């Protein structure tokens, strides 16, 4: 499983949605499942999946699936 597939799976687990709904354009608050509470669950899932520690600015800036990939790349995850 490559890093993008791992990221898609982490989003699906944290947001309780089908991975087929996940694309770069999927954005925070664009679906009912991705609210502020789910955002924190998503952060925890990403930290666990990729063994990283996201800082507050990263958590606030993670506004979409595509942006999450950019943030994780900044932390050394290769996509």
Structure description:
The protein is mostly helical and 79 residues long. It has one domain (3-74): Non-ribosomal Peptide Synthetase Peptidyl Carrier Protein, Chain A (Orthogonal Bundle). It has four helices and no strands. The protein has helices at residues 3-15, 36-50, 56-61, 65-74. Helix 1 (3-15) packs antiparallel against helix 2 (36-50). The termini are close together. The mean pLDDT is 97.
In brief:
The protein contains four helices and no strands. The protein has 79 residues and is an all-alpha fold.
Assembly state here?
A: single chain
Q: Largest sheet, described in full?
A: none
Structure annotation, total helices? 4
Ends apart, CA distance between termini: 11 Å
Task: Please state the average pLDDT score.
Answer: 97
CATH topology term: Non-ribosomal Peptide Synthetase Peptidyl Carrier Protein, Chain A
Summary tags:
79 residues; Non-ribosomal Peptide Synthetase Peptidyl Carrier Protein, Chain A; mainly alpha; globular
SSE blueprint and pairings:
Layout: H1 3-15, H2 36-50, H3 56-61, H4 65-74
Helix pairs in contact: 1-2
């Amino acid at each position: 499983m490559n890093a993008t597939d791992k990221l898609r799976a982490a989003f699906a687990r944290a947001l309780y949605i089908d991975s087929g709904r996940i694309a770069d354009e999927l954005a925070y608050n664009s679906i009912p499942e991705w609210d502020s509470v789910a955002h924190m669950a998503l952060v925890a899932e990403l930290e666990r999946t990729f063994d990283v520690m996201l800082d507050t600015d990263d958590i606030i800036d993670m506004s979409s699936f595509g942006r999450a990939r950019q943030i994780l790349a900044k932390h050394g995850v290769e996509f």
